[in-house]
Amino acid sequence: MAAGSIINGQVLDNSGVFSAHALRFGDGVITDLENKGAFELDATGLMVLPGIVDVHGDAFERQLMPRPGVRFPIEVALLETDRQLAANGITTAFHAVTWSWETGLRDRSIAEEMTRALRAPGAGLSVDTRFHLRHECHNLAAENEIIAWLNDGLIDVLSFNDHVEDCHADAGKPAKVQQYLDRTGLTRAAWDELLARITSQGPLVPASIERLAAAARKAGVVMMSHDDISPAHRDSFHALGIHVSEFPETEDTARRALAHDGAVVFGAPNVVRGRSHTTAPNATDMIAKGLCTVLASDYYYPALALAPFKLVERLGGDIGRYWPLVSTQAARALGLTDRGVLDVGQRADITLIDAHGGVPRVIATLVAGKIVYLADGARLKAA
C-alpha cells in the first residue's frame, strides 16, 4: 500500500485532545516514521478523526429494494452502498441483514447472497464491510444453517431479534400492516396465517437461542440483543454471553446492561433528529446520563458523522468527548482492537471533516491508508 501523510490538520488523539501535527501512515497502518516519496493530503481547516465504525446499518436495503417488490442484484446494491459509506466517513461497516420467518426482503435468500457477495473475489468494496446477521428468534427453521455459518466463519456479528409481538401490536394499524405486505409480497390473509403459525412456535424459542448463543461463543463471534424490553430481558441475554444491548427500550434496561459492563447501542438518527422514530428512549438524554456507549447508523448513514456535532450543540463539551461513540467505543464493542484511534500501529482508517459553518461535511475518507473518498481534489499533492 502507498505511504502517505496528512498535514496541517487538527488531529484527534486517543485522549480526546486535538493537536496540529502531521499524521503519517504506510502499509495500511499509522507510523511515526517519515514517509519519503509519498502523497500528502492537506487538511488545513479540517478535523482529522478516527474512521467511523458502524456496528449496525441496514440502509443498504434501499439499494436492494428501492420500491416494494422491485429487487436489484446484491452486487449492484453493495457497490452503491459502499459509495455512500465512504462519502459519509464510514471506514468499517457491519451490514445488518435480517433473516426472518418472513418471505421477501428479509428471507434466507438475502442473507445467503450477502455472505457470498462480501467474500467474492473482486467485490470491489473500498470500505471494510462485514456481515451482521440479525436473527429473528422465531425463525426456528434457520437454526441449523446459522450454526453451520458460524462454524464456517461466515458471520461477523450475530444479533437476536424478536419482532413477533410488534407485528401483533401493529395488526390494527393499516399503514403498518401495508408495510409488512409490501415487504413480503403476501396478501393480508396469508400474512395473518403466517404470523399465527410463527407465534405458535414461541415455546421452542428460548432453547433455540441458547443453542445459537453457544455456537457463537464457540466460534468467537460477538453477539447483540436487539430491543431489550426490560432489565430481566437483558439479564437473560447476558447469562448467555450476549454482552451488547442495541436499542434497549427503557432507561432501566440500559442501566442494567452497563451494570454488566456491556456496551449499549443507540441510533445516531435518534440524536440528529432529537428523538426516536419509535417510542424508544431519546438517545441524547441517554448519552447525557452516561447510558449509551455506541452510536449506530441504524437506517441513515449520514447520521453517524453528524451526531457528535449535534451532541456538542445540545450537551456542551467538544468533539473529542463524543467522537468515540462512533469510533473507538464502537470498535471495542465488537472486539476490534486494531482501529478506532489514531495511534502508531493502528489501521490508518481516517475521516477528515470540515466543521466550519452549516452542516459538517466529510472531505476525505481513508481506509487502511487508501483514499476512498475525496471531495476536494486540490488538497491532494505528491510529496
TrEMBL record:
Gene Ontology molecular-function annotations: hydrolase activity, acting on carbon-nitrogen (but not peptide) bonds
UniProt-listed GO biological process terms: organic phosphonate catabolic process
Xref: InterPro entries: Metal-dep_hydrolase_composite, Metal_Hydrolase, Metallo-dep_Hydrolase, PhnM
Family annotation (NCBIfam families): PRK15446.2-3, PRK15446.2-6
The protein's name: Uncharacterized protein
UniProt source species: Candidatus Raskinella chloraquaticus
